[in-house]
Amino acid sequence: MKTVSILAASAFLASGAAAATAYGERKLIVGGEAVPTNSKLYTVGIREDPFDPNFCAGALISLTHVLTSPNCVNGTSPSLWVSVGSNYIIGVDGEMNKVVSAKTHPKFDNDYVSYAFAVLELELPVNKVKPVQLADADDPHVEVGTVVTSVGLGFTSVSSDGSVQSELQRMDVRLWGEEECSSRSEATLCGSAGEGKGVCLGDSGNPLIVESETGKDSDDVLLGVLVGSEFAAETLEMAKAATMST
């Protein structure tokens, strides 16, 4: 099973027929499309050093806090940095900020993927990027049939000579009803990205959002973050919105 998380709780990516991808061309948001430059900048890259590539992603939820996946911090407070406002996995074009604390929800249950999120506290307030809006616990955006979007900074290709090309990607997912969903908990919803599409290695922490009808990023609503997966999968299971304070 793979995992995906939805706001202040969890969601997980389940693989019905996961298959390892080839080294020569390894897509992480599989079947996705590039996000226009300077959009979805609340998608944050997480790295061990300001000059390293991102190994995880997250969502800026306040000027000093990032929501991400528990497996990006392993329940500890490691030496981490974030890149805010960049459309690329490698480089220093984004605003660099040091992480001063990393906390996983105390109710996090890895077996049931419950409360599967972590919050990073930043050393300084972010200057140039506005945080994404958070969904309410009973937000209508998670109803059956809703189309949500996974946004991520995973590699789009890794060539055999070691060179890397990467830019922010997006992929739409339509939510299913309970009859179509085999849930790990009562707080889980399922959905499908469609044939040949899915998330894969390196997409941990990717924001799951409902895009604004106005087209403005400032009106997007965050439903959750991707917990992680090893191989591509077309079926996604996502938890219903839950409050971070629960």
TrEMBL record:
<dbReference type="GO" id="GO:0006508">
    <property type="term" value="P:proteolysis"/>
</dbReference>
<keyword id="KW-0964">Secreted</keyword>
<keyword id="KW-0378">Hydrolase</keyword>
<dbReference type="GO" id="GO:0005576">
    <property type="term" value="C:extracellular region"/>
</dbReference>
<dbReference type="InterPro" id="IPR050430">
    <property type="entry name" value="Peptidase_S1"/>
</dbReference>
<keyword id="KW-0645">Protease</keyword>
<dbReference type="GO" id="GO:0004252">
    <property type="term" value="F:serine-type endopeptidase activity"/>
</dbReference>
<dbReference type="InterPro" id="IPR009003">
    <property type="entry name" value="Peptidase_S1_PA"/>
</dbReference>
<protein>
    <submittedName>
        <fullName>Serine protease trypsin-like protein</fullName>
    </submittedName>
</protein>
<dbReference type="Pfam" id="PF00089">
    <property type="entry name" value="Trypsin"/>
</dbReference>
<keyword id="KW-1015">Disulfide bond</keyword>
<feature type="domain" description="Peptidase S1">
    <location>
        <begin position="29"/>
        <end position="246"/>
    </location>
</feature>
<feature type="signal peptide">
    <location>
        <begin position="1"/>
        <end position="19"/>
    </location>
</feature>
<dbReference type="InterPro" id="IPR001254">
    <property type="entry name" value="Trypsin_dom"/>
</dbReference>
<dbReference type="InterPro" id="IPR043504">
    <property type="entry name" value="Peptidase_S1_PA_chymotrypsin"/>
</dbReference>
<keyword id="KW-0325">Glycoprotein</keyword>
<keyword id="KW-0732">Signal</keyword>
<keyword id="KW-0843">Virulence</keyword>
